[in-house]
């Protein structure tokens, strides 16, 4: 299938505190070469770019993953851009506005990859929880942040349409990996110098559930306030 | 792929008044042999059972569809039940409670087929709108209902987990076709005499969007109150 966005788990379920990893990084790489994820315990930020998976943790370490690590929530796709253009010298809010104009529709999922030189890159890394897990908002409120200036790399991630808030985070949810592969994280904001922007529009959103995880199948999940908690945490 | 629930369009988008059909019944039948849908204008109730598609309209007519009719919102699957059991002499609320106990999880989508003799079957048929379309709640408020007693047939449809309310209708959303194929509709409630219940649990939910429909891709859809309107209408 082409133009399929594959997701394992949901952001809502993660926010509700079901943090046990249920899909391996190698499994995820079968469904795409670009993507975002987290590991068991919602430990850090996974960045999948050019078919490789990297991990940025709360200690500001950045490593390539081996493949057998487990993820409770991941979104990946085979990246085949429908639109490519260049842009320069503007803050992330303006870059996102441009991408929204160039996406086929705000009612569809899209992937975006922004590669080149960034004047500023501001990221955070979710601190991992140990069992017993609690609602993610607890660890989201104590995330370390990091800012780098004049850095080359790629922003990768997805646009989620408003109706799917809860399944993902409505709007853009993007991670960053630098070209030296030693810095990255969940993107808070940035400023581009000169970048290439690539956009893929998705016809199909494939939601995979952790059917073999009894913590998921047997739990009465409390989704109350999830929409609000996602807005606060993301 | 097995155990995939395929959906074209979303209930939220339908409720917001985007009622133009965008997938043909023949296209839908490629993705499943059991299912529920509506036609352009949200005209009536489509029941897909045993690989054939039927239509119940507001005039209480019931016909087999030809295949080139278009649907704005449809949910279908290849039915391969994971669990089969018999039950008798109880109202729909109790039947649903039993099904919920026997589904793998309330956090997954499931298909259900309930076949046999029903003491009572209470259905409604959505009146079709003509363009310019309005929010569905307007036509939902003037739906004719129909009750039949001691009737043989099949209830078919799906369970949607709470987090996906808006994408579908949280809980059970089922339609009915009698064995004589001359009566059916959207199920409001029923009472079983003796029936066989079959349940399929889904590992994957495949959401397909109407990427070629400019009314969908170019509209700023107002999803405010959609969750509430779905609860009122369904």
Automatic annotation (TrEMBL), chains A, B:
SUPFAM superfamilies reported in the protein's UniProt record: AF0104/ALDC/Ptd012-like
Annotated catalysed reactions: (2S)-2-acetolactate + H(+) = (R)-acetoin + CO2
Pathway(s) where this gene product acts: Polyol metabolism; (R,R)-butane-2,3-diol biosynthesis; (R,R)-butane-2,3-diol from pyruvate: step 2/3
Coiled coil regions, renumbered to chain: none
GO molecular function: acetolactate decarboxylase activity
Protein origin, superkingdom: Bacteria
Gene3D superfamilies named among the record's database cross-references: Hypothetical protein, similar to alpha- acetolactate decarboxylase, domain 2
UniProt-listed Pfam families: AAL_decarboxy (PF03306)
Family matches, as InterPro entries: Acetolactate_a_deCO2ase (IPR005128)
Enzyme Commission number(s) from the entry: 4.1.1.5
UniProt keywords, alphabetically: Acetoin biosynthesis, Decarboxylase, Lyase
Alphabetized NCBIfam families for the sequence: acetolac_decarb
Family statement drawn from the similarity comment of this UniProt entry: Belongs to the alpha-acetolactate decarboxylase family.
UniProt name for this protein: Alpha-acetolactate decarboxylase
Organism ancestry: Bacteria, Bacillati, Bacillota, Bacilli, Bacillales
């Amino acid at each position: 299938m082409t133009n399929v966005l594959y997701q394992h788990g949901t952001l809502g379920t993660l926010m509700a505190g079901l943090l046990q990893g249920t899909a391996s990084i190698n499994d995820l790489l079968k469904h795409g070469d670009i993507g975002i994820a987290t590991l068991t315990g919602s430990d850090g930020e996974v960045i999948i770019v050019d078919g490789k998976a990297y991990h940025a943790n709360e200690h500001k370490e950045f490593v390539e993953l081996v493949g057998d690590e487990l993820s409770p929530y991941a979104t990946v796709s085979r990246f085949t851009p429908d639109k490519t253009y260049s842009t320069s010298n503007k803050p992330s809010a303006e870059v996102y506005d441009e991408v929204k104009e160039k996406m086929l529709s705000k009612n569809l999922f899209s992937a975006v990859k922004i590669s080149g030189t960034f004047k500023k890159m501001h990221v955070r890394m979710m601190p991992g929880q140990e069992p017993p897990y609690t609602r993610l908002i607890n660890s989201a409120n104590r995330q370390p942040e990091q800012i780098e200036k004049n850095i080359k790399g790629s922003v990768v991630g997805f646009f989620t349409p408003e109706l799917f808030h809860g399944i993902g985070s409505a709007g853009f949810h993007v991670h960053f990996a630098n070209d030296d592969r030693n810095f990255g994280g969940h993107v808070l904001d940035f400023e581009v110098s000169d970048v290439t922007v690539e956009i893929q529009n998705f016809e199909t959103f494939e939601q995979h559930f952790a059917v073999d995880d009894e913590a998921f199948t047997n739990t009465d999940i409390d989704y109350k306030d999830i929409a609000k908690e996602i807005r606060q945490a993301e």
